[in-house]
Amino acid sequence: MRTVKQLFIILITILVSHMGWSNDIQPVNQLATHLTLSVLDKASEPRLWNGNILFTQKPTGNTRMVGIAFENENYKKIHLFKRNEKGVFFYLYPLSSDENDLQYRIIENGLWKPDPTNPNTETDSWGTEISRISLTDKKYNYLQSPQIIEPNVVQFSFRAEPGQTVYLCGDFNNYDPFFTPMIEKEQGVYSVSLKLLAGKHHYYYIYKGQKLTDPLNHLQEISTKGQTLSVVIIE
């Protein structure tokens, strides 16, 4: 009599032989990507990260496999999530400029289901419940921060109310609260580009008198003074 574990392995083997599987990740900055994903400790709604959509899952119980399949591939290819040391499964979907909507389903231990972290679900023409992301939603646009736009030149961007004053503070300007003002290059989007030395740099923004980490950058560290700082790594 085969055990449940043996049957599960057989099932996965059959799926692998009949479907396209992929665990591809296409990071912009491999070291920064590794550090960011390694510290994830909870699942959250899909979000933009470095030109990718970051999907996360943290199932309860004995979950061995998490995957994702997309409607634009006719659900014929399952992309495998990776798992970090904190038990969070994650997958990076590279965005393309010609996509407006993304429909998909999550596969957990062979069971297909909508994404429990995404409140946007709908029923397709076959009566199947699927998850949907509208890439025209403002939070999925192509604003990235920080972004290495040329060797050792980093562009920092921050979205806020129009007509405000925003400053960039970091180890590269001795955390001076007035030395590096950001320019509102388009309505509600503030940016500044700096040439920095290779290595790790810490920074934050000052907005309405408050110190804020970069909401577009999930790579953070705690300083010796207990302050949470955003991190950019230049290789």
**Helical segment count:** 2
Round the mean pLDDT to the nearest integer and report it.
82
CATH architecture of the largest domain: Sandwich
Fraction of residues in H or I helices = 10-25%
CATH class of the largest domain: Mainly Beta
Separation of termini? Answer: 54 Å
Largest sheet: 7 strands, mixed
The total number of structural domains is 2
Tell me, briefly, the overall form.
Answer: elongated
Rg (CA only) = 20 Å
CATH homology superfamily of the largest domain: Immunoglobulins
State the total count of DSSP E strands: 20
CATH fold-level topology of the largest domain: Immunoglobulin-like
Sheet-strand content, in percent, reads 35-45%
| Uncertain stretches of 5 or more adjacent residues | 4-21, 23-29
TL;DR of this structure?
This protein has 235 residues and is mainly beta.
Written overview of the protein:
- With 235 residues, the chain is mostly beta strands.
- It has two domains: 18-140, Immunoglobulin-like (Sandwich), CATH 2.60.40; 147-234, Immunoglobulins (Immunoglobulin-like, Sandwich), CATH 2.60.40.
- Helix content is 10%, strand content 42%.
- It has two helices and 20 strands.
- It has helices at residues 4-18, 30-38; strands at residues 20-22, 47-49, 52-57, 66-70, 77-80, 82-83, 89-94, 101-108, 111-113, 121-123, 129-134, 147-150, 153-159, 166-170, 183-186, 189-195, 199-207, 210-212, 220-222, 228-234.
- Strands 1, 4, 5, 8, 9, 10 and 11 form a seven-stranded mixed sheet that branches. Strands 14, 17, 18, 19 and 20 form a five-stranded antiparallel sheet that branches.
- The radius of gyration is 20 Å and the shape is elongated.
